[in-house]
Amino acid sequence: MAGHCSRSCLAFLDMDIVDLGAKIALIYVPFLFALCFHEFAHGYVAKMRGDNTAQVMGRLSLNPMVHVDWLGTVILPLISIASNLNIFFGWAKPVPVNERNLKNPRSDMFWIALAGPLSNMLLATIGALVVTLVATQMKMSDIQRPMAMLLSQFILTNLFLAIFNLIPIHPLDGGKVLARFLPVSWNHKLEQHEQQLGILLLILMISGALRFMVFPVMFLYGFLLNFFGAIFNG
């Protein structure tokens, strides 16, 4: 049975930055890299589990062009930035996975789905390490503040991607993670309504109903910075 790892979506409050070029650099660039890394992680773990469909189709790459969905990866995010909307969201093309190639499809799909959010947690952790180094080891300079802002946005973007995709409903990664623990018949019914659930998620994002994600994201953001701050400050 052929399947796809879920689209990677994101929703969060816009930053208070006036210059459009700066907003694109500080918001869109980290978002684009986080999306590509997320999809790459799905494809890489699928290959490790026996399915090389992503590699054969050229999707096992960090090249944005192989993952781009023009509406979700380019048009909507840039419109959100340019129009100063209080919500920013987007997605990439889902990575194809052929479950017939997996040795244990139920267990393997769990790890393939989980790889996306975990990859963003990894990037957020690396970002927190680097921003702490910048803050504690570099002397004050004109480049320090922009670098710290970029790294902070990079951390937040990856945390939002991770938390959002772990919401346990289809078509998100969390739905496939949850499937590992549900009866097969239940999961099959949920997959049958994946399109309707996707539309519901989009409506919730646009309406701002998913702003609750700010709380776990900011908790993790503070935890990571405090953790590395404690290490470098002794």
Quick synopsis:
With 234 residues, the protein is an all-alpha fold.
Describe the structure.
Strands 1-2 form a two-stranded antiparallel ribbon. The mean pLDDT is 85. It is globular, with a radius of gyration of 18 Å. It has one domain. It is mainly α and 234 residues long. It contains ten helices and two strands, in the order βααααβαααααα. The protein has helices at residues 20-48, 53-56, 64-67, 70-82, 105-137, 144-165, 173-179, 184-192, 194-207, 214-232, and strands at residues 2-4, 96-98. Helix 5 packs across helix 7 and helix 6 crosses helix 10.
Annotation keywords:
234 residues, mainly alpha, two-stranded antiparallel ribbon, 66% helix, 3% strand
User: How many strands, which pairing sense, and closed or not: the largest β-sheet?
Assistant: 2 strands, antiparallel
The secondary structure category is mainly alpha
Give the H and E element order: EHHHHEHHHHHH
* Strand-residue proportion: under 5%
Cα shape: globular
Would you count the extended β strands for me?
2
How far apart, in Å, are the first and last alpha carbons?
Answer: 53 Å
* Residues in helices, as a percent range: 55-70%
Number of domains: 1
How do the strands line up in the largest sheet? 1-2
- How large is the count of helical segments? 10
Task: Walk me through the topology.
Elements: E1 2-4, H1 20-48, H2 53-56, H3 64-67, H4 70-82, E2 96-98, H5 105-137, H6 144-165, H7 173-179, H8 184-192, H9 194-207, H10 214-232
Antiparallel strand pairs: 1-2
Helix pairs in contact: 1-4, 1-5, 1-6, 5-6, 5-7, 5-10, 6-10
